[in-house]
Amino acid sequence: MQHTDSNLQAQLDAITTSTRGLVQPERLAITDDAVQELLATGIESRVLPVGATAPSFTLQDALTRKSVASSDLLALGSLVIKFFRGRWCPYCMTELEAWQGLYPTLRERGALLVAISPQMQRQNDFTVQQHQLSFPVLSDPGARVAAAFGTAYTVPDKMRAHYRSILINIPFIHGDQGSDTWRLPVPATFVVARDSTILFSEAHADHRVRPEPQDVLAAIQSRI
User: Fold this and answer.
1) CB 116 within 8 A of CB 82
2) Angstrom distance (rounded) from CA 177 to CA 190
3) pTM of the model
């Protein structure tokens, strides 16, 4: 499908192209191999599909520091849920900034948006402030809600060493979670109807690939 109203993937591909021009091939290979290994686990097939019932959750908002319940949000309209890895991921931040630009359109269609990551609240607060996000950014300690949606995985040892080598301190970012310190979500997008039915579901083991916003908006429009 061609997307004329949104060009998110082209922006993400530009990040990939730039990275490949700057980073040593042996370091690039570590990430490429990790993506293939994660794909081989079958994680994409375990993500909750369209038609499934979305799990309920209550998580803390970065800006207000108040608990946000999915049931309260769904009482107001359809809900777009975006699971992202963290503010250290340029692909995630590019995607969230794209959605910030589309948030008025989303609200006009009677829908809401939340972004969820396993970052501690302070890190999510930095995310909101630095990228001027106006939608809730929620902390999911240990990626437990992500796991309920089928998107969570444990970072393997080789990638842990790689992250440390490029100064991405996941335990610090997550505020440590004991055995769950190294849990991350694969980037995933869900649209949930007011009755908790999942209308749109897309997740990728390759963090460099994301759904086009117009496809997500179309799922909401089809239910109006």
Assistant:
1) yes
2) 25
3) 0.93
